[in-house]
Amino acid sequence: MNPRISLGGDRLRVRISNAYGNRPLTIGAAQIALRDKGPAIVEDSGRKLSFGGSDSTVIAAGAVLFSDPVELSVPPLADLAVSFHLPGEVLANFSITGRYARQTNYISPPGNFVADRVMPVGNLSDQWFFLCGVDVLASSEACGVVALGDSLTDGNISTIDAYCRWPDQLARRLVAHGRRPFGVVNNGLGGNRILHDIRGDSGLRRFDRDVLAQPGVTHAIVMLGTNDLRNRWARPEEEVTAEQMIAGLQQMVVRAHSAGIKLFGATLTPFGNETFMANAWNPTRERHRVTVNAWIRESGAFDGVADFDAALLDPQIPTQMRTVDDCGDGLHPSDSGYCKMGHAIDLTLFD
User: Fold this and answer.
1) I need a surface site. Which of 141, 220, 225, 292 has the fewest CB within 10 A?
2) Half-sphere exposure of 279 (CA within 13 A, CB side)
3) What is the mean pLDDT of each run of 10 residues along the chain (351 residues)?
4) By the 8 A CB rule, do 182 and 218 touch?
5) Residues contacting residue 40 through CB under 8 Å, at least 6 positions apart
6) Prediction pTM value
7) Rounded Cα–Cα distance for residues 148 and 154 (Å)
8) What angle do CA 88, 91, 97 make, to 5 degrees?
9) In the chain, where do the E strands start and end?
């Protein structure tokens, strides 16, 4: 797997998740390296990962494991290659902890190839499997910001391998800003909602794990609510109101502040002409969206606001995104739209 990190440094560790596994996960060997091209790594950059001094480990169902740290000098925005050898059979009913990546990752034929400079390729994948973080040992002035959201944070429909997601753009801007080191964690999850589970835990359910437990986190940005409004499964008991969504977001504020984390609220972008799902938009849901956005902007509950709605909406048709910023489905931004979202965040909020 080929993650891009935001924070540079000389000492790294990897986090591996079996959070949704229904049985133990065996890691036979693992390595981290600087990525070259495709499934290749930069010569002599490979570092064997160990776990409590052992080359292999078993991760219990539902658990997360931290590797031992390794010495590897990496600049900000470096592309890495993290490889795991899975010696046991991964059965079809093994609940894999994975996530949509918008990046090309590689699956080898059977065998242990973690130490190869060019890994043989059996299949390609645009998912993350088991890898849930790369931590960089940083100086005391460094900060970390978590982006908590749905597919619009995960970067759905953006160009694969182009790093067009708004957290990518935010990371580039923070590196250029240069006032202090900043790590950016993209914890977007396609389909995610504030209040109800769907394709994973709800935002409220995963907030402790995906925000509060992130190493070094000092700030977070939450952009959730669009999928609550869309009610994908059309269940009457999951049809939400603005008041219910606001109550959920308010709980996130309380929990972030209790942990000493500054939480920024991101407004919800328009989806009035969505084609991704028929009948997702209606005037009632639009009123709830407008009400939630007004609360995010005006309530003072958050430590700052990222006004993604203002960045993307068509002033002539405020229920829709501008055509140039729409990927074509009326719901997800184009590459340029995602970058506009990342550019809409006021960097002085982090000062």
Assistant:
1) 141
2) 4
3) 96 94 93 97 98 97 96 97 92 68 93 97 92 94 97 94 96 93 95 92 96 96 98 95 98 98 98 94 98 98 98 98 97 97 96 86
4) no
5) 117, 118, 119
6) 0.96
7) 9
8) 90
9) 9-17, 25-27, 29-34, 47-48, 57-59, 64-66, 70-74, 80-85, 98-107, 123-129, 131-136, 143-149, 182-188, 219-223, 262-266, 304-306, 313-314, 317-321
According to DSSP, the residues that pair with 269 across neighbouring strands are none
C-beta of residue 67 within 8 angstroms of C-beta of residue 14: yes
Residue 206 burial (C-beta neighbours within 10 Å; 0-12, 13-18, 19+): middle
- SS3 sequence, 109-169? CCCCCCCCCECCCCEEEEEEECEEEEEECCCCCCEEEEEEECHHHHCCCCCCCCCCCHHHH
Residue partners of 241: CB distance under 8 A and separation at least 6: 288
Strands 143-149 and 219-223: parallel
The secondary structure of the chain in percent helix, strand, coil, rounded to multiples of 5, reads 25, 30, 45
CA–CA separation, 19 vs 238, rounded Å? 25
CB contact set of 262 (below 8 Å; sequence gap of 6+): 218, 219, 220, 256, 303, 304, 349
> Using an 8 Å Cβ cutoff, are 46 and 33 in contact?
yes
What are 215's two structure tokens? Answer: 């190493």
Nearest Cα to 221, choosing from 197, 187, 270?
187
32 backbone dihedrals φ, ψ, rounded to 5°: -125, 145
Q: Do residues 269 and 286 make contact, with C-beta atoms less than 8 angstroms apart?
A: no
The upper half-sphere exposure of residue 308, i.e. CA atoms within 13 Å in the direction of its Cβ, equals 30
- Scored b (16 or more CB within 10 A) or e, 188-204 reads bbbbbbbbbebebbbbb
